[in-house]
């Protein structure tokens, strides 16, 4: 029943957007107002904040299960602290109290599992499918199946390389910008240390190959590297976004190269593994160490690593997409158009800042 109402509304929305010419625009939107900023309180804290409301109006009365919007979330896995925060953001947002039934699937970083999950969501006739795609390519067939079934698909976090008519919209971090910000930060850091013209040997621990977070961060950093003829990328290998693999790859880098100046870790957890490998090899890293190391995400444990003097900098990627997707669904339910591509504003942090104070304010 819900689905029929929705497709009529979507049909109307599509017609309206065709007339106005603004639907399906790929103009990036800034959605920082759409969801809690990185520094707001954790969603978990919010949900426990008003227990009285529940006792007066039990969830079952507030919304009969017929009224609940059923959302299937095809999650990547549980490979990192970022991912854990992202899962928590969805689970605490898509609750029955908020009018939803969430069907959550953890694909264990395998695309075939995500495709299976999406097919099962289609079979269960959910109202919306949300996907954080493991990799960018290979989604046309299953998205077409969802479209034929009349189920809107929302992409969150990572991107898909598919025709934009196959999804409603995407919300996530600007990965190319994150990579460029990291390169720009490194150039300034080396300059400030009087090493602006020195030959700089760099290695990169890449994320899951083909994931847009990997593709974008690699490309963004490469854009800045191209501006510095004295920077040399010695090696790049995937650490699959996990601490264990990051450590393993860093161990092999340290065996192959004895003159590494900089480690780029495409997420915090791989940096944590790399820091262990560097220490085990009898070297040091961080602002006072032999090796400069920085990473992406900026989860709380990255703040601890910076405060401990092991990590130089962390480039933020905000995982709190639950409230953002909730807002998108609410708009679609009302027949409103949504911006096709929605980037979240992100910052960076390094050891020149008051990290204890910043960490205390962060939600993840
Ligand atoms: O950086 C990493 C996670 O897609 C932005 O995936 C996300 C990345 C994040 O495993 O920690």
TrEMBL record:
UniProt cross-references to PROSITE patterns, sorted A to Z: PROKAR_LIPOPROTEIN
Compartments where located: Cell envelope
Keywords: Signal
Residues of the Periplasmic binding protein domain: 77-314
One Gene Ontology term, aspect cellular component: cell envelope
Signal peptide: 1-20
Family (UniProt): Belongs to the bacterial solute-binding protein 2 family.
PANTHER family according to UniProt: D-ALLOSE-BINDING PERIPLASMIC PROTEIN-RELATED, GALACTOFURANOSE-BINDING PROTEIN YTFQ
One Pfam family this sequence matches: Peripla_BP_4
Species name: [Clostridium] citroniae WAL-19142
GO MF entry, a single one: carbohydrate binding
Region annotation (Disordered) ranges: 29-62
Protein name: Periplasmic binding protein domain-containing protein
């Amino acid at each position: 029943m819900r689905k029929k109402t929705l497709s009529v509304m979507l049909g109307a929305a599509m017609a309206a957007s065709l007339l106005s010419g603004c639907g399906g625009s790929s103009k990036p939107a800034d959605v920082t107002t759409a969801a809690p900023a990185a520094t707001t309180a954790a969603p978990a804290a919010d949900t426990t904040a008003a227990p009285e409301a529940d006792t007066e109006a039990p969830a079952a009365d507030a919304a009969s299960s017929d009224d609940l919007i059923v959302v299937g979330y095809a999650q990547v896995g549980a490979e990192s602290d970022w991912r854990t925060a992202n899962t928590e953001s969805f689970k605490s947002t898509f609750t029955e109290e908020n009018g939803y039934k969430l069907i959550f699937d953890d694909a264990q970083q395998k695309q075939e599992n995500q495709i299976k999950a999406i097919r099962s969501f289609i079979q269960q006739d959910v109202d919306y499918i949300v996907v954080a795609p493991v990799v960018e390519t290979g989604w046309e067939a299953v998205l077409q199946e969802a479209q034929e079934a009349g189920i809107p698909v929302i992409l969150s976090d990572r991107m898909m390389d598919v025709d934009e008519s196959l999804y409603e919209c995407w919300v996530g971090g600007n990965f190319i910008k994150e990579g460029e910000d990291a390169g720009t930060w490194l150039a300034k850091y080396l300059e400030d240390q009087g090493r602006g013209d020195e030959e700089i040997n760099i290695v990169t621990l890449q994320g899951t190959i083909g994931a847009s977070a990997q593709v974008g961060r690699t490309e963004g950093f490469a854009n800045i590297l191209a501006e510095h003829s004295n920077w040399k990328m010695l090696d790049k290998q995937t650490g699959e976004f996990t601490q264990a693999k990051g450590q393993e790859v860093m161990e092999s880098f340290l065996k192959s190269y004895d003159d590494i100046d900089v480690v780029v870790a495409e997420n915090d957890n791989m940096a944590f593994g790399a820091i262990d490998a560097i220490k085990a090899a009898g070297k040091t890293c961080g602002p006072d160490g032999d090796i400069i190391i920085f990473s992406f995400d900026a989860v709380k444990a990255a703040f601890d690593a910076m405060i401990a003097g092991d990590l130089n900098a962390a480039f933020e990627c905000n995982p709190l997409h639950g409230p953002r997707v909730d807002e998108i669904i609410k708009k679609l339910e009302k027949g409103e158009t949504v911006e096709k591509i929605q980037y979240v504003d992100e910052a960076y942090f390094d050891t020149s800042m008051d990290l204890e104070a910043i960490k205390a304010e962060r939600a993840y």
